[in-house]
Amino acid sequence: MDLFFRALVNAKSSASFPILTELHQRGELEGLVIDLLYVVRKDYEVKCVAIICDEVYLNVFAGPLFKRTPGVPFVMTVVEDYEDLLSPNYHTLKSLKAARKEGCNVYVILLANGLQASRLLRFGDRHRIIDTRAKFLMLHDIRLFHRDLHYIWRRVINIIFIKYHRKNIGVAKSKAWFELSTVPFPHPITTVFVPRRVDIWKNDNFHYKRPLFVDKTHNLNGKLMNVVYLDHIPSVVVVKNNDSQKVGGVEVEIMHTLAQKMNFKPRLYQAGNSDLHKWGQKQPNGSFSGLLGEMVNGGADIALGNLQYTPYHLELTDLSIPYTSQCWTFLTPEALTDNSWKTLILPFKLYMWIAVLLVLLITGTIFYGLARNHKNLQDYKKFQNAISGKKQIDDDNAKPGLYLFGEIINSILYTYGMLLVISLPRLPTGWSIRLLTGWYWLYCILLVVSYRASMTAILANPAPRVTIDTLRELVDSKVICGGWGTETKRFFEESLDEYGQKIGKKFETINNPLRAADYVARGVYAYYDNSDFLKYLRVKRKNSPGVLMEDFNNSTNASDVSIKTDAERSLHIMSDCVVNIPVSLGFHKNSPLKPLADIYIQRVVEVGLVEKWLNDAMHTIRSSETNESEVKALMNLQKMYGALLALAIGYTLSTICLIGENIHWHFVVKRDPKFDKYALDLYYKNKKG
């Protein structure tokens, strides 16, 4: 049975691939693969080897290969010669995923059909099933170098093509040999793909003994790199000066550092209609616009534009390690509510006022009780003297001292007067009342000093601002939330937070941040972005308030936004961060530059250059914000609204009481039958009796 299988394989190979007859008989390809894996294992760390072959080359991987490479895990995939590897079957796909999951960093692909191999590479690159940064061993086939596959060789650069050369006919000592070549990275592939020779394998030996896999990204030899950028502070800052413009920012500085260390020349450019499409979105035809469109279409090698480290971006591009983390929050309007009328009650909180009121009522009641008790003692003493026949001595001071607190109303009023640091008209009679008065004065002094100190601080400082600082406050407000892109809206709609989901329901997309800032200033909108960019918007809006208000031509659901014509409000950045998002540089999908770029970016972050560049990019904006926030503590009429309000309340109550007394005089007193306007003293004496 085994003999029949080998004969069948050899018959198929001799019919379609005459090169394979001698290879299988002598085992030369098997020896080469063993030597290649041995060198790779010796010079590099091999975690796992993935073998992908068809029935034609299945007998290459016999016992000697695995015996010569002990301790190395293998994941072997055998495909049918009729299988379309651009859409592999379940078992093939499961095996490829297993190899990726095990971390295989060496791929041996021996497929007789070059078209089948090319479709496998396209599938692996598109769905990231194959690690394009691994080391590859493949058969040389001219069909792999078609123009449509040139983009693959910008991503798969660690590869050895195995090309068989027959022995020279007529030469006795001539033997078959193999040429080992690779892609010419970093040199660009123009019209024709010409592989670069690495070594020659002949007589079970390497001729030049050169390293098979060298780091081709360490020195790019001045290669021209297309860098697409999007003006978004602080990552990219574009300063326009007449007809010229200067591009700076944190990511631009990082890119220049990478260009210096990796020796490439960046060519900066912006995507078409970048002001409209910005990062870009998926179009109805399946393509992408904006910055992401340049990356997906292969037009750019590097992307600069404050790319968030999210699954959405990772699916379309490769992202470097995050160089910073940004606070993403909302730009909200400040409320126009003026609380100057509450100046008199602002020094104390509600519970403090309740405590002061309770102490006033309780202390006034105690004064009244002590006064009544002292009066009862005096009456009792007079009664005892009258019974015993002793002569009574009138105490003129007794009555004036007691009338202060003899009635409950007077007791409360005089207690309130001491709280306002108003001295009593006379020292009270009775030692119990005098002692309580002394201790109550100490309490009043401490309370009044605290009130005055707090009042001084309130009058000396600017009026407090009423702002939105939490998601809950934003949800409870009536403002509409908005930001750029449908992905941001989806982020809120799929949020696990209850308030985030509520914001997602009223979230609208808008493509013009300056127009959004105008809507925020009118109190009907809250704009979502990173805090640094929101600071820029606030300063920009302050310096350029004349931005034209246009319809939301480039937004969705914009018809729901109503423009108010009331006074504009100050812009406030919400203090709570909705989320802290890592930010990275973008590389085209499966870019070979990412591993080395990550190392350099990590070093730049560790030495503090990113923080320095961030401060440089935000210096002008922060300086403008500091100047705006320096509000002098001036006394004005607005801060006296509380006193005027208290005076107005007093006038109003006095007027009401005066009107009430007049009504009582004319409609009650004058209509009394006993009323005599010529003998009012007798009227009131009889009334009291």
Automatic annotation (TrEMBL):
One of its GO terms (molecular function) is ligand-gated monoatomic ion channel activity. Pfam families: Lig_chan, Lig_chan-Glu_bd. SMART domains: Lig_chan-Glu_bd (SM00918). This is Glutamate receptor ionotropic, delta-2. The chain crosses the membrane at residues 350-371, 401-425, 431-451, 641-665. Its main location: membrane. GO terms for biological process: detection of stimulus involved in sensory perception. Belongs to the glutamate-gated ion channel (TC 1.A.10.1) family. GO terms for cellular component: plasma membrane. It comes from Trichoplusia ni (Cabbage looper). Keywords: Cell membrane, Glycoprotein, Ion channel, Ion transport, Ligand-gated ion channel, Membrane, Receptor, Transmembrane, Transmembrane helix, Transport. Residues 234-297 form the Ionotropic glutamate receptor L-glutamate and glycine-binding domain. It is found in: Cell membrane. It is a multi-pass membrane protein.
